[in-house]
Amino acid sequence: MSAAPTLERLSRNAARAWLGRHASRPGSSLLSLASATLALYLAWIVLDWLFLSAPPPWAAASSCAGAAGACWPFWMEKSRFILFGTYPFDQQWRPLLASLVLIALSVATGRMAVSGRWPDMRLLAVTWLCGMAASFLLMGGGVFGLAPVDATRWNGLPILLILSTIALALALPVGVLLALARYQTRHPLLRRASGAYVEIMRGVPMVTLLFVGVFVLPLTLPKGMAIEPITAVLVALVFFHAAYFAEDVRSGLMSLPAGQHEAASALGLGFWQTVRLVLLPQSIERAMPALVNSTIGAYKDTSLVVILGLHDLSATARMAFSDVAWGNQALEAYVFVGLWFLLSCSYLSWIGRRLATRGAAGRSRSTRNSD
Amino acid sequence: MDQKLQFPADKNAGAPKIRPAISWMDAGVGLAILAAFVLIAFNIYSNMTAAGIRPGFGFLAQQAGFDLSESVIPYDAADSYLRAILAGLANTIAVAAASLVIACIIGLLIGLLSVSTAPLARLFALAYVELFRNLPKILVLLVIFVAAVNGLPTIRQALTVGPLTISNRAIYLPWLSDDPGNTLWLTASLLVAPPFLWLWMRRVARRQALTGRRGPAIAVAFAIALGIPAALAFVLDAPLTLSWPHLAGFSVEGGITLSIQFCTVAVSLGLYHGAQIAEVLRGGIEAVPDGQIEAANALGLRRGQVTRLIVVPQVLRTVVPPLNNQFANLLKNTSISIAVGYSDLMSVAGTAINQTFRPLETMLITMSIYLVLCLMVTGALNHWNARIRGREGRSAT
Predict the structure, then answer these.
(1) Domains held by chain A: number
(2) What are the sequence ranges of the domains in chain B?
(3) Are B240 and B231 in contact (CB under 8 A)?
(4) Helix (H, G, I), strand (E, B) or coil at B128
(5) A-chain residues within 8 Å CB-CB of B146?
(6) I need a labelling partner for A198 at 20 to 30 A (CA). Which of B73, B80, B98, B375 fits?
(7) ipTM attached to this prediction
(8) Residue A224: which CATH number?
(9) Cα–Cα distance, A140 to A133 (Å, whole number)
(10) pTM for the whole thing?
(11) Which residue has better confidence, A32 or A21?
């Protein structure tokens, strides 16, 4: 009985507060309205394109011709092609397995980074090396009764994963060494050389490095030695990413208080012991968010290899809609690739955010303890 | 062995030790680098002579013999390779400038939306930023290129939007007609107005340092920027007629032409870097402590004054270093335009490699140019940053 007027008064108060809030800031309310309209309009376009005006997945390819929406039959028909390209059809379990190995390794490493519980580094390194070798053997064949497959037919997802995960996994140790070389002061030439290397690499576009890998690297080999374009690109990517990792690790090293290595030398630790036990664990922990950022950038940029004629996802997508029967499905093909990148990059950014919040919490805790 | 390397903080620690002028490690590193270079040079030399090519930069003077999709500076196939590379460089700078303008506008809009008081606007900005941060730039470029080529009308049915004529081959803008009087007027205005503007800004800065007042700085600057060209047009008697693009047979004549390749590269990089610039701005604006704005309100400053005098200077201080990075990245990222066939520096270099089979020389030149461009951009912005910080240092003393 008595609840009704109270409720009424409450809702009247809420309405008045709502009105007051919006009347006092008309600009903000207008902005809200405009963004809501725009967002709804965009959502409607996407919904309409994806479902309402789209032919169903089981429809014939010809039903896409007049439809305004997305061509689901194209995705049904061409998804596998976009993922694995021209790899022999009956052998496509091999690129699938190779991709799964690399994804599993990356996800496992990501989970270790988020939890902060690392196994023995030697074990991790050996596992990664085995995974890389396994993916190359699976793709190339010629052993264990696997039919050999030419590297020009390695397409799509496995190429993207090989060139990103393997290049990044190899670039990290190189980057750490470069960072240490630039950090120490006893050997000025070593310091200068690594500094110059890092600055030059960071001052040129990645595409130029890819060109150097594909066109100049073969020239620098002794006569008679040849190098596959994919290997050449892999080498170029390792050298390129290493420079960015080096800067991240070096900023971590620079942020360490001097007391750390003073304490280490007071304990009688040598250079490599200090680096391994004291400096690197802390500096890499501090550099983690930056390292994850560089990793995301490098992973996205791996798709630039399409310029060099290596067929990663965006190239197989283009091949898929170059097929005469599916000539108008360019958008569908690229949406498929875009979804893969959105998903994988969101996972990586999530790791980065977790690490950043954990790093900040850890540091504030440690400063509290030292106070 | 273990004790040989040393850390920065040890430099001043303890008694000075006597060291050889060059450490063994350094000598080893130097020798290793030298040996690697000699080996590589030998291999390159023998590989190139085996292919019948003498290494050297003499080919730059030879006739290039290939056409560019377009060129900011005059170029045709009979020109030399050097000229082709310069044309590519000019195209790179043009597309970088256009992308930069678009990226700054988008970045400013989205960045302001992301700190606005309207939650939906913030959500919209967040969605935009996340979308472009999680997509490769080359994918953005390819999608926009395909959409433009398939979606825009052919040249016969070109759209006319205000002064623009849009087709799937190019976008056409009205421009000063090709008259010697116009060219003279444009050159003269570009040469005369900037020095006067610079003198005026210096005068304003001096006056502010002496009296703390700026006076009508912006109004006079506008008057100079508009008045001098107007006066010059009167003095030089320039016709100032516009040439409007119009359909003539199978092409459009008159005005200036921005090819669809140029437009898609500029728009893609603009959208892509716009998201990153927005993120930088958001970080900078959120870094301004609330107390600063509350204090300014308590002092009775008006809203515009709070923004101009309290917020913007502090935001500038925090965003200039990351923006510097963004501008350099944008410049480097123009090299993806090779994927849609815009003749930038990288794509000219690629063609030159295919024709001459001189990847070493071509890539050395190309990478040096990119490196110098990048150093110029970061150098200029670092200089500006130092000036902002310097001003802050002076006012503090």
Answers:
(1) 1
(2) 81-152+251-396, 178-239
(3) no
(4) helix
(5) 330-331, 334
(6) B98
(7) 0.83
(8) 1.10.3720.10
(9) 10
(10) 0.83
(11) A32
